[in-house]
Amino acid sequence: ALKDETVVVVLGASGDLAKKKTFPALFALFAQGLLPKDVHIVGYARTKMDEAEFHKRETQYLKGDDSKIEEFKKISSYISGQYDGDEGFQELLKHLEKLEGDRKTKNRVFYMALPPSVFTTVAKGLKKNVYSEDGINRIIVEKPFGKDLESCREMMSELKAQWSENETYRIDHYLGKEMVKNLLILRFGNVFLDAAFNKNFVSNVQITFKEPFGTEGRGGYFDEFGIIRDVCQNHLLQTLSILAMERPVSFSAEDIRDEKVKVLRSIPAIAQKDVLLGQYVGEGDKPGYLDDDTVPKGSVCPTFAAMTLWVNNPRWEGVPFIMKAGKALNESKVEIRVQFKDALQGIFTDIPRNELVMRIQPSEAVYLKMNAKLPGFATRAVPTELDLTYKKRFVDTNIPQAYEALILDAFKGDHSNFVRDDELDVAWKIFTPILHWIDGKDAPKPEPYPYGSRGPKQIDEFTSKYGYKRSPQE
Ligand code: BG6
């Protein structure tokens, strides 16, 4: 673990990701005393600016008391330079050496908050010029990792030529979310859940991602990727893999990731017939996707997708895993919903199904929909909930932000919540065929849905086709 004498270099320091996620996470760790001792933070980007201007940007989204922010500024500095060639990186090296002084260990963590176009060039430049021979080196990288299986492999092999798997930390920030991290304990630490988590008891599983805003302002980026590459192939599939995997041999990073890879390998590529695509259109004063000037005219890029995946192993064979994700929908919500099979009807007529819901955000919660007798003289069943809402049960407990948790793990050298190269490979295998179909000249036309709605009108028909029964309360 990196306990002291570490320099963190944030590449792409003038960009949005750095400003909104990386610096706030670093600051939160700093304020809680969780960063290594004697840490320095160095921003690096092409933009020329003086230290004052950099500090202004660096601290724009920080939350905390002013004196801590001042302290944080004191350990932060900035160097501008190019992403290609050696010159900029040589300057960076000089700067690091100045900060490191006569330290014996020179640990360097490189956080790549960069667009994919310069990513491998920078990884090479860093290795060549700024790699520490007297300490630990780590490189933290984040999606997009290519656009399909082939481009991902190309990118990974270029990266691997420079940085070992052990030095590489691939972020999928969903793996840092409290509720996703909770899955292991929920599933394997509760005997009744463990016993019921299989095809004998589960009818269908839904993993839902909903955002109430469109792609305003990042239409250009989004149009190249679409909702499937943006959140399904990574965030939602990672969540699914932990939800569906077998119990790992231990909590170690390799044991956990071995099981994730194994379950992912049993998922065949998604079939065209199991896909429903949508694109939002304007509603009231809210613009449609195509109204964004940065979006190419007539684009058929999906902003909504529902897909069914099948896990062909003894535990899950035949159970549909429905993934739904969309922008510009009616609410902000990410949840996993495991719907159990019907109770034996025998003495009942139409008793609702049990459902286990794990709400990832907002307001973390786990609740189990179950039937109970309506209190009173008559014997009547009523749907109720066993409700574990975190705000109520863990009052005043700080739930760390995903990026804080992950950056801390990277300092500790714990890879459990980072994506291993073989995971990435299988993840792309599952999605590449439908992505090529969607990108190709036979691209299906996405179904329109109004901004702020629940998605294309076919959505309920889609989920019910895979056995989902809406409960009477909804
Ligand atoms: C990012 C996507 O990876 O995840 C965004 O590029 C999306 O489009 C975001 O909004 C969602 O993350 P979160 O943490 O807000 O659920």
From TrEMBL:
It comes from the Eukaryota. SUPFAM superfamilies: Glyceraldehyde-3-phosphate dehydrogenase-like, C-terminal domain (SSF55347), NAD(P)-binding Rossmann-fold domains (SSF51735). Pathway: Carbohydrate degradation; pentose phosphate pathway; D-ribulose 5-phosphate from D-glucose 6-phosphate (oxidative stage): step 1/3. GO terms for biological process: glucose metabolic process; pentose-phosphate shunt, oxidative branch. InterPro entries: G6P_DH (IPR001282), G6P_DH_AS (IPR019796), G6P_DH_C (IPR022675), G6P_DH_NAD-bd (IPR022674), NAD(P)-bd_dom_sf (IPR036291). Keywords: Carbohydrate metabolism, Glucose metabolism, NADP, Oxidoreductase. Residues 184-468 form the Glucose-6-phosphate dehydrogenase C-terminal domain. One of its GO terms (molecular function) is glucose-6-phosphate dehydrogenase activity. Its EC number is 1.1.1.49. GO terms for cellular component: cytosol. Residues 446-474 are annotated as: Disordered. Residues 9-182 form the Glucose-6-phosphate dehydrogenase NAD-binding domain. Pfam families: G6PD_C (PF02781), G6PD_N (PF00479). It catalyses: D-glucose 6-phosphate + NADP(+) = 6-phospho-D-glucono-1,5-lactone + NADPH + H(+). Belongs to the glucose-6-phosphate dehydrogenase family. Catalyzes the rate-limiting step of the oxidative pentose-phosphate pathway, which represents a route for the dissimilation of carbohydrates besides glycolysis. The main function of this enzyme is to provide reducing power (NADPH) and pentose phosphates for fatty acid and nucleic acid synthesis. This is Glucose-6-phosphate 1-dehydrogenase. It comes from Kwoniella bestiolae CBS 10118. The lineage of its organism: Eukaryota, Fungi, Dikarya, Basidiomycota, Agaricomycotina.
